[in-house]
Amino acid sequence: MNIRFDGKTVAVTGAGHGFGRCIAQTFAHLGARVFATAGTVEKCAACERIGAERCVNYRESDFVAVVRELTGGRGVDVVLDMVGAEYFARNLDVLAMDGRLVEIATLRGAKTELNIQAIMQRRLTVTGSTLRPRSVLEKGAIAAALLEHVWPLLEGGTVKPVI
User: How far apart (Å, rounded) are the C-alpha atoms in residues 127 and 82?
Assistant: First the structure.
């Protein structure tokens, strides 16, 4: 199986830290146009050096406005969010028609208010994921997929985690 994201747009929130930066780098290598958020000029520059088309300093600019402008008003296909509740409404706003929001962490809160009509009108998908409640079999399948698709990028130095 060949995993590619050619022609897809992906936003990674919280990309200023090691895990987020590694995710942004991986998506960029797999062919996606990657947009990211981080909280300092230095972290944004680091994200852009590893493949993000644009990293928005959330303290200085409106992430949604910048990404919508860069995508011609379309928005992104996927948001991979580590921020959580604080970004939830903005994540919905930045998604393109039929976009997907994937929640993988709650660094800035776990509870938020939800505008269901925004999801319905643009046929959005909201999902979340964490490894803890998964079975050993599921974790094994995830590990095998990572070994096949991501590990070669790490091993070959194409994607470099930031520690």
Answer: 13
Kindly report the CATH class assigned to 9-130: alpha beta
- Lookup: tokens for 81: 């969010």
Q: Model-level pTM greater than 0.85?
A: yes
| pLDDT 10s digits, 60-103 | 999 999 999 999 999 999 999 999 999 999 999 999 999 999 99
DSSP letters spanning 130-159:
-STTS-HHHHHHHHHHHHHHTHHHHHTTSS
* 126 phi, psi to nearest 5 deg: -115, 125
Residue ranges of domains in the chain: 9-130
Contacts of 90 (CB under 8 A, 6+ apart): 63, 64
The Cα–Cα gap between 98 and 22 comes to: 26
Residue that has been written with the tokens 């991986």 in this structure: 26
